[in-house]
Specification:
By secondary structure, this protein is of the alpha+beta class. The chain has 28 helices and 22 strands. The relative contact order is 0.06.
């Protein structure tokens, strides 16, 4: 059978504490008996799914329940005679999974597929029958959740099943919603399994299903899965945490009193709000205990404030920070900057006069639905209007289609390049281990979603795919950066690609690649090119130099009679740069920009400083360096671009290529310092040039 079962009494210490407040627990034995009572009149729902219908109507009052009746009749008849390991009729499992989804607000199609999710896998029902009876949508979801045959895949069945589900999730996120609810019910009823099998299932849940629940924003499922895994894999820590919670239950809890104070503050401010005390779940208490050591009464829960509008969230925040002492380091604004899994809230903490610190979460009721149920709260997102062309052009996949987030698109891309099940399985766990995501901007204004810790290499492969094999550097926020540079949220990154198609990545790139897409692409190229790239090499030669005749101090004037004034070649100052002059051998005055390193050296040597100012005349001299890729006619194109700006070339030096990159150094006579920005832009626009700067 696809879903395992157990005696609920097998782990008596786990089930009572992990019961979610406010969630109705179904009596599996009662439902099993109801499922076997025989046919139900066609004018009403079977008694066994009355609780599902009630939960569904609470979120969707106008839902047509007739399709649920038909799905239940097919599921019950096809599973009839099958029993779970705990002795309950098998139909209790799809009923329990469907109830979990109904309580989270799933729409009717999801519940229909949930009732049928094991029929194709475990009974004689075929996908064609499901399609004929319930349509293509339900058939696709049921097929997505159905495991691959172990007889065909052997040891690779589990990774290949997850690969199949993930690919199906890329087309319909409801596939993974059912899988998460399915795993939650199986974890709730895992106790009759052998300890080693419990541990194996719990590890897969920890490494794959919990991160997927986090990424899809389904916190209600994620937190309970975490607690169940915690009890199985870390029984000693679980028992200590249970003892802490039990000890706290016998003490006075300060949080209700703090919640009353918050209600009074908001009532006086005229803000309509619902204030609740939300107890922490087991894993959360364990993490807080590790972070803070000894726990106080206010550490066992948080205060949740629900309001109607976004603006009210900030109004609540203002009142809290005015009437209580805020803990500034605990403030986070996930409304202005939502998490990548759709989560939005304001987080803060306030200190009370009696010394307690209470964490407070502020959100709207709609934000609360999404925070608890994630993508399930979206209902059927595929019936919504298509995004506008302008929105799609933004490239912000997180906003255009929240059911197809950036992490899922990345995962679907790299899994195609991982045909080996073991490589896919290890890569999937590594990808999901990245528990935070950043957004970086492309040079064209689009965005890339990357895991925290990603580097320029990851950005290059995310943007260009295998073309990124020829990446030779990057610009981050306009400045040149190495490929191993780690990116931060909000950075602008521009990978720089070589024009030589024979270029390839170095083995060292694997040390800096964080995403599986980049690692698989690099490893594949290195495997196919064991001897490395074979680019054409340019023999070393002396720099090419073109020198003009003009020199002198331009329009710089030193306050030293009859002195010769020279502009320093190391920093080539131009008006209106702030400058400093120093007397050198022969009585000449050399003029530097004040930030030039030579100025500090001159002063340390005791050289005489001379006041320098600029003449009213506008002409000046400057030295620019241009970084570019090597290509034919580049020098001619750069010289032409300079000439079009009305600028005279005094001297030009071209260094030999190094890794297909070439540095050009030009000393230029400008008719007016104001033309310098336009000149540098014109040089950057020459194909192959990726940076131009003052010397």
């Amino acid at each position: 059978m696809s879903a395992e079962a157990t005696n609920p009494e097998a782990r008596p210490e786990v089930r009572p504490e992990l019961r979610r407040r406010g969630r109705t627990r179904i009596d599996l034995r009662r439902l099993g008996r109801a499922a076997l009572l025989g046919p139900t009149p066609r004018d009403r729902l079977p008694d066994a799914i009355g609780h599902v219908a009630e939960a569904h109507r609470a979120h969707h009052p106008d839902a047509d329940l007739s399709i649920l009746r038909r799905a239940y009749v097919l599921a019950e008849s096809s599973h009839r005679g099958q029993m779970r390991k705990s002795g309950e009729p098998y139909i209790t499992h799809p009923l329990a999974v469907t109830l979990i989804l109904a309580e989270l607000g799933a729409e009717t199609t999801t519940l229909t597929a949930s009732l049928l999710h094991d029929t194709v896998e475990d009974t004689d029902v075929t996908l064609d029958q499901v399609r004929a009876e319930f349509g293509d949508e339900v058939c696709f979801i049921v097929d997505g959740v159905t495991k691959v045959e172990k007889i065909d895949y052997g040891a690779a069945a589990e990774p290949e099943t997850f690969r199949k589900m993930l690919v199906a999730t890329g087309n319909d996120v409801r596939v993974m919603s059912i899988k998460l609810a399915d795993r939650l019910h199986n974890m709730r009823t895992l106790g009759v399994m052998r300890p080693e099998k419990q541990a194996r299932i719990a590890k897969v849940t920890r490494d794959v299903l919990i991160p997927l629940a986090e990424r899809l924003g389904v916190q209600a499922l994620k937190t309970e899965l975490e607690d169940l895994v915690f009890a199985i894999l870390h029984p000693e820590e679980y028992e200590r945490t249970r003892a802490l919670i039990a000890a706290h239950a016998g003490e006075a809890d300060p949080l209700p009193g703090i919640a009353d104070s918050v209600r009074a503050v908001l009532r006086d401010a005229g803000i309509a709000a619902e204030v609740q005390v939300r107890p922490r779940h087991f894993v959360s208490v364990h993490r807080v205990a590790l972070k803070r050591g000894e726990l106080r009464g206010s550490d066992f829960g948080r205060i949740l404030v629900l309001v109607g509008e976004n603006a009210d969230c900030y109004g609540v925040l203002g009142e809290l920070h005015t009437c209580f002492t805020p803990v500034v380091s605990e403030f986070k604004d996930f409304i202005a900057a939502p998490k990548f899994n759709l989560y939005q809230s304001l987080h803060t903490a306030v200190a009370t006069p009696d010394g307690y610190v209470a964490e407070v979460i502020v959100r709207t009721r709609q934000m609360h639905r999404v925070a608890e149920a994630g993508v399930i709260a979206l209902g059927n997102p595929y019936t919504a209007p298509a995004p506008s062309a302008a929105a799609a052009a933004d490239g912000d996949e997180e906003r255009v289609d929240p059911t197809r987030p950036g992490w899922l698109a990345r995962l679907l891309d790299w899994q195609r390049s991982a045909p080996d099940p073991d490589a896919f399985w290890s890569g999937l766990r590594a990808e999901l281990a990245q528990d935070r995501e950043i957004t970086v901007f492309r040079a064209d204004g689009g965005t890339l979603g990357l895991p925290a810790g990603a580097t320029c290499i990851d950005a290059a492969y995310a943007q260009y795919g295998e073309t990124a094999h020829g990446c030779i550097g990057a610009r981050v926020n306009g400045r040149l950066a190495s490929l191993g540079t780690r990116l931060s949220d909000g950075d602008t990154v521009q990978p720089l690609l070589a024009q030589d198609s024979s270029s390839g990545p170095a083995a060292e790139w694997l040390e800096h690649a964080e995403t599986q897409a980049a690692r698989i692409a690099i490893s594949s190229w290195l495997r196919d090119h064991p001897d490395g790239a074979t680019p054409t090499t340019t023999p070393a030669r002396a720099p090419l130099s073109v020198v003009g005749a003009r020199g002198g101090g331009g329009n710089a004037v030193a306050d030293l009679p009859d002195a010769t004034v020279r502009l320093a070649g190391c920093c080539t100052p131009v008006p209106p740069d702030e400058v400093a002059g120093f007397v050198v051998r022969g009585g000449a005055v050399t003029v530097h920009r004040v930030e030039c390193a030579a100025v500090a050296q001159m002063r340390s040597l005791g050289r005489t400083s001379v006041a320098v100012h600029w003449r009213a005349t506008a002409d000046c001299r400057v030295t620019l360096t241009a970084e570019s890729f090597g290509r034919p006619h580049l020098l001619a194109d750069l010289t032409e671009a300079i000439a079009r700006q009305g600028v005279e070339v005094v001297s030009a030096t071209v260094e030999p290529p190094v890794e297909q990159r070439v540095r050009h150094t030009y000393t230029l006579q400008l008719p007016d310092a104001s033309v310098l920005p336009a000149l540098m832009r014109a040089m950057r626009d020459v194909p192959g040039v990726y940076d131009v700067d003052r010397a």
